[in-house]
Amino acid sequence: MLIQMDERKIKTVADISVFLSGTDQTELRLQGSKDDIYAWVERALNRFRYGKLSKKEKGIVLNYLIQLSGYSRQQVTRFIARYRETGHVRRRQRTVNGFERIYTREDIMLLAEVDRLVDSASGTTIKVYCQRAVFSNMK
After folding, report:
1. What percent of the chain is predicted at pLDDT more than 70?
2. pTM summary value
3. CA distance 37 to 133
4. SS3 letters across the chain
5. How many CB atoms lie within 10 A of CB 79?
6. Which of these ranges, 26-40, 66-80, 100-114, has the smallest mean pLDDT?
7. Are the C-beta atoms of residues 83 and 50 closer than 8 Å to each other?
8. pLDDT tops 50 at residue 4
9. Among 16, 43, 66, 71, which is disulfide-ready with 75 (CB 3.0 to 4.6 Å)?
10. How far apart are CA 69 and CA 40, in angstroms?
11. How far apart are CA 22 and CA 2, in angstroms?
């Protein structure tokens, strides 16, 4: 059974306590994209003036954010830390390839050819052959 609720009616930390104590928390989650949930977390932190709350009240708001967002305690804590630093909770997508390519395709093909010529010897043996080839060309 899906219950519609207007969570904007929750205006105080006391309202949050009543809300959390009176709900079946296993099925209660916000629906929407990650960006929507990040924006909701930011709005909630603004609405409850998170920075001015007591430690106990911050814990209640934290539990509320965890419950409705579906994120872990650690992730919501990171959201709050970012909010305190910047005043915003924005999603930072990381699509950068973490590994830079050192060897070119030609380097890889040459290494495969050496491996074929020495009958798939160990990596150490191939390294010695490559070093000998480089040093013999230097003379």
Report:
1. 88
2. 0.60
3. 59
4. CCCCCCHHHCCCHHHHHHHHHCCCCCCCCCCCCHHHHHHHHHHHHHHCCHHHCCHHHHHHHHHHHHHHHCCCHHHHHHHHHHHHHHCCCCCCCCCCCCCCCCCCHHHHHHHHHHHHHCCCCCHHHHHHHHHHHHHHHHC
5. 22
6. 26-40
7. yes
8. no
9. 71
10. 8
11. 16
pLDDT of the residue at 75: 93
Closest CA relative to residue 80, chosen from 127, 29, 93, 69: 69
Cβ atoms 108, 67 nearer than 8 A:
no
Mean pLDDT of 65-90: 91
Contact 114, 130 (CB under 8 A): yes
Centroid of chain to Cα 77: 13
Question: Is a pLDDT exceeding 60 seen at residue 5?
Answer: no
| Neighbour tally for 77: CB within 10 Å | 14
Site of tokens 């994120």:
71
